[in-house]
Write a structure and sequence with these properties.
The protein has one domain. It is built from nine helices and nine strands. The strands form two sheets. Strands 1, 2, 3, 4 and 5 form a five-stranded mixed beta sheet that branches. It has a four-stranded mixed beta sheet with strand order 7-6-9-8, sandwiched between helices. The chain is globular. Keywords: Hydrolase. GO terms for molecular function: hydrolase activity.
Length: 261
């Protein structure tokens, strides 16, 4: 275990509970209880996608902004210990699952949601401070969850050396679903980096691409030993809880940095 990065992340953000779940081999902290209190609140991070009727973004631009926004909120100084968002973010990260709920907005609704506490990236995605799913502001509650699909684009190769989030090439996901998943991936990748002695801020602007089936199969086979997969390929997975669109346990995407972090 490398404690330097983990200590830095603990001091900076409320992400600490994730380490014991996503890289238990890198920390001696006990894993939190995964079975949430059935009588307690279900918490989620609202992720607002800007989808204007005229000149909508490409899916790649939207997903890269979603990945960046989710992590930016967690690394924001307001999410640090003593910050105004710390309690909400820590409670969410300490829950059984880091749920995200993507909604779409445009025009006046997009402008209105800028007043709700959160972080906006590229004027395309706003990640909001997580909280109970049944207690969201009016500006968020009125936004639709469906209708987030965008036509495919061809973003080209990943720039050399950049962290990347690879989408599962064998599973169909709506743009909204994928937006939530890449947000999970950026958080997980930053956490594993931190607890293995790396810099979590390396992941603040990840590329998003669909993996080739050959690479995907190699990485998924390697994930049988997560520590070895990280050391050899620099990969960390997102496994879906199965509430929407995909079966429980599906690896929806994989975050990757240079092998070994």
């Amino acid at each position: 275990m490398s404690s330097g990065g983990g200590d830095a992340l603990t001091a900076l953000t409320a992400l600490e509970p994730l380490a014991a779940r996503v890289c238990p081999w890198a920390t001696d902290r006990p894993a939190p209880e995964l079975d949430e209190d059935p009588d307690g609140p279900v918490r989620a991070m609202p992720v607002i996608l800007r989808l204007e009727k005229q000149d909508p973004p490409t899916p790649t631009a939207l997903l890269e902004a979603a990945a960046a926004a989710a992590l930016a909120l967690c690394l924001d100084e307001r999410s640090a210990r003593g910050g105004e968002w710390f309690d909400e973010v820590a409670a969410w990260c300490g829950a059984g699952r880091i749920r995200k709920l993507a909604r779409r907005a445009r025009t006046s609704h997009w402008r209105a949601v800028q007043e709700v506490p959160g972080v906006t990236v590229s004027d395309l995605v706003r990640a909001l401070v997580p909280g109970p799913v049944d207690d969201v502001p009016h500006e968020v509650r009125r936004l639709q969850i469906g209708g987030t699909d965008l036509p495919d684009d061809e973003p080209g190769p990943v720039p050399a050396g950049e962290p990347v989030i690879w989408l599962n090439p064998r599973v169909e996901q709506s743009t909204g679903k994928a937006g939530a998943q890449v947000g999970h991936a950026s958080m997980i990748l930053a956490t594993v980096l931190a607890w293995t002695g790396g810099d979590p801020h390396r992941v603040t602007a990840p590329a998003v691409r669909t993996a080739s089936t050959s690479d995907w199969d190699v990485w998924c086979a390697a994930l049988e030993d997560p520590e070895a997969a990280w050391t050899r390929y620099g990969v960390a997975p997102v496994r879906d809880a199965g509430f929407t669109e995909v079966a429980p346990g599906t690896v929806t995407c994989i975050g990757q940095v240079a092998a070994g972090g």
